[in-house]
Structure formats: C-alpha cells, structure tokens
Amino acid sequence: MFILLMKQISKILNQNFLIILIYCNCIIGKLNSQTFYSKTYTRDSGFHYFSGLAAYDDCFYVLSHYSDPEVKNRYGATALLKFDWGGNILQLDSLPPKDGKSFAWPNDLEVIDDSLLFFVAQDTNYLFSIEFNRKSRRFSIEELTPVINPYFYNDAIGVHQANDFSYFAKYQGNRQKRSSSIGFYNRDLILYSLKFGHQDTAMIIEGEYSLNPYSISINRIGNLYVGGLLTDWDYDDSTDYTFRQFIYEFDTSLQLIRKILSPVGLKLGSANAIVEDREGNIYCAGSDVIWHLNQEFMVNNYYNEIPAISKYNAHGVYQWSKRLPFPDKRGYDNYYNLIFSSDSNSLISVGTYFYSDSLYWDDSTYSSIDLGVITKINLEGDEQWTRLYSARGVGRQTSWSRFNDIIQSPSGGYLICGSNRLSYKQVVNEAGWLMKVDEFGCYIPGCHILNTVSDEKKIKLQLYPNPAHDHFAIIHNYEESLNCKMYTLDGVFVTKFDDIFPLETQIVDLGGLKSGEYLLQFFSQDGKWVGTKKLVVL
Description:
By secondary structure, the chain is mainly beta. It has two domains: 2-31 and 459-537, Sandwich (Immunoglobulin-like); 37-449, Methylamine Dehydrogenase, Chain H (7 Propeller). It has one helix and 35 strands. It has one helix at residues 2-31; strands spanning 37-41, 48-55, 60-66, 77-83, 89-95, 104-111, 116-122, 127-133, 138-144, 157-161, 165-178, 183-195, 198-204, 210-218, 224-231, 243-250, 256-261, 273-276, 282-291, 303-312, 318-323, 334-340, 346-354, 368-378, 383-393, 398-408, 414-424, 427-437, 461-464, 471-476, 482-488, 493-500, 504-509, 516-523, 529-537. The strands form seven sheets. Strands 1, 22, 23, 24, 25, 26, 27, 28, 29, 30 and 33 form an eleven-stranded mixed beta sheet that branches. It has a four-stranded antiparallel beta sheet with strand order 2-3-4-5, with no helix packed on it. Strands 6-7-8-9 form a four-stranded antiparallel beta sheet, with no helix packed on it. A hairpin with a 4-residue loop joins strand 8 (127-133) and strand 9. It is globular and about 70 Å long. The protein starts with a helix and ends with a strand.
C-alpha cells in the first residue's frame, strides 16, 4: 500500500514538476544568474578549520588549521589554500611542526601587499608572527617571547601595520585567585609589538577582574583597538558574574589611551571584531548574555549567549546592542566577524547560532545543533536580513556549523569561511567550509523573496539545485521546523533530516548516493505531512 502511494505521488509530481521548475527558475533567473557555491575540505585522517580570508584581484586565500598523518603532533599545523573566485582550489602551502614547535590555530589573515600575507599562529608555549610570500611560496616566522609564564591558553590574535610593525594581544594567568571550591588565575591583558625583530610588551591589570582579548585592529588614526570581555568570574557566587564588553585604545608605543566599557547591567559578551565608520563610531560583533537562574537552561554556569552587534559613538559612549532576531535557545553563540557593505551604509556579520534543544547527541540524533549565521543591519541597528545555514551528509549525522570570516566578492555578493563538524556515533569529522552567497546572503538565489511574494505565489518549500550532482539545499518558510524523509521512487527509505529551521538553508552532501530520482517528504513537528518534492541526482 505504501509503495502504491509513493508511485501515485511520483506520477503527480512528474506531471507538475516541469511547471514548478520553470516557475522557480523564472524567479531565480530574474534575480541573479551568478554561480554560488558551498564546499567543504578535509584531509583523509584529520580536519580543516578555516579561520580567515584574504582577497586579491584574481584569487583569494583561506587560512586553515589542519592535522593529517604527516603531522605527528596533536596541535596540528597551519595551511594556506589558494582559490580562484570560482571556488576551485589552486594550491596548498602547509607549515608543519618544526624543532618541536607547532604553528597551529592560525588567525587574522590579512594582505600586506601584492606579494605578502600576514597571520599569527601558536602552540601551547609559543606565539608566532608569520608572513607568507605568495610568489616564492615561502613562510617567514618570528617568535615572540611570552611574559610571566609560557602558556598561551586562548587563540592568538594579531594585526599588521605599515613599516613591518605587528601587534598581538593575549591574556596571561598571572595572579592566582582562590575560592572555597576552586583555585584559578585572573587573566591579565598582554599586548605585544614586534618591529624588525624587536619586541615590546605592555600589561594591563584590572584588579579582581579578568581581561580576555578576542580582537585587535587599527583604527582610522593609526591607533590600536583591543576588544574582548571583562569579567570577575567568581566561583564563590556562580549565579551572577560581571560581563562587560571592553574596547581599549592604545597608541603605537603601547600606551593605553582610553577604556571603553559597556554598561554593567547589560551583560554584553566579548568584542570579537571591531570596525569604525567615517565619523569614528565603533561597531562590535559579539554576543548578548542571557541569565538563567533556572538550571533547566543552564549552559556555561547559568548563562547563555545570543549573537549581537553593538555600537559606541566616537566618544566611546554606548549607543545600542542588537540581538540575533530568533528565539532564545540554550547555547553559546556569537558573531565572530563583521564588515561594512559595499556602500558603507550597513554591516554584515557572521557567526554561529545554537538551535538544538539538546546540548549533546546520541546515535539516533539527526538534527543540526549549530547553524552558521549571516546578518545585515544598517548603522542604526535595524535588521535588514538574517540567513541561517547548516551542512550535512545523507547519513545519520549531527552537524555543528560556524562562520568565522567574511569578505566581499569582486563580482558581487560575499565569500564566507568557517567549519562544519559532522558526527555519527560520536565520531566527529571537522571540515573547512567555504561558501559564496549573493548580495542578499542567499545560497539559493531568491531566498530573500520567500516572505515578500504574494500568498498565491509564495514558494513554501524549495530544493536547489535540482537536478543536483554532489549536493543540494533545502529551504522553507513554514512557521515551524520541518522533518524530512527521503525515499527512492520504489518506496525504499534512504535517510532523514530533522529540525529544518524556518528559512534555514540546509545543504546536504550527496556523496555516496546513487544517481537517480528520489522523493523527499516533509512533515511538521507533530507528524503532519506538508509536502513532497522530487530530487534528481545526476
């Protein structure tokens, strides 16, 4: 009976599929004829984690942490991947461990000139300033000498300035603070400068507070902004911490000029990225902390973080903070980077959004836990649009998706990099994730009209591309999350995808799936059938 039903659905779809496809393609064709892509890259026995992007006219580079059998070190190594703007990889240059030192967890990739790129890397005991000559394909490494103790716990951050001047910010656990239950160190801000091999260092101490730096940039007058989180992190009273976003301004000699702090009562999270407009107003990508005294919602000691963008005026006075416009969930979410739009009248920010109701997974879980997020707001904080993305395979997998960096594509739209972790039976495989989207943040062209077209023409559910070769994407605009089951035309169950969030674009890798025609049935959370789509796999 079930097989007969599936064949009847298939017959109906065959009669109407061409009409639906022509209608969808007409809309898409009017909007954009440009090619967009979503690609993941991983080594056979390791993973790639894409942390940064840098652009040239004819190509772009992606900064990656990786590990493979040749890197016999648990910290892995660094790689630079070169792509053309069509997303085709051209070359890979790796920096494996040497003399017992690992050049791992690289960050803050930027262009110095037509030949040189800059980034920073680290391992447990060392911090490195690294330049890459893309013409000779050689790395130049300078090692910084840590102060206080040799242990670097948080990710490295750095920025390059003209005249071969580089700056780096870290924290160091120097002053031990004890409570009745646990002993730990206050974290003090350490700022390094490096010029022609000469190192200078400055330390900032804030009494009983810890300073955790997460970003460093050069402002419009040539000074430094170091952004992060100020907290008292008191385990004696784990129901109420101080959370204040900080931006400290330094001159080039590492002298502290001013301190900018968010109001105490707001509990803003870290300043993960900082940009400045023409008038000197400051915008931060970070998070807004939500407090939960109810342990049912406890994550990270009673608090959650929701991605948020905040603004301070040129005098450092707090103006506003805007959260991601989606329901609060249990999780640890942030915007990690932001840039100005091409007309400088808006901000585009990328990060991660924790959507699942569960913090952990088991062998029966299929849902996406973390979603990559892209948001556009104007300079007054009004949201223009937000897009959610996840990537998964056709098997029983749970995915964690995260976007780390974004740049503008010279042909229009945006290029985004990050990582995607797929798990099955608690075995995790992490891959570097590269996406090109249009000026509306859409991977599926036309995704921005799903809520604007008239009701009688509204596209409720869409697959793209269709026919598909190596992957396809699902998007819908129903009011609740949908579950999907995939069958062959003969009614044989193939796989399922749960919790497809409204207006989330879920990208499915078709690796291992045979060519042919498949039916995708979509259901509401209470099991009600809402629609069926045919997918052609080439």
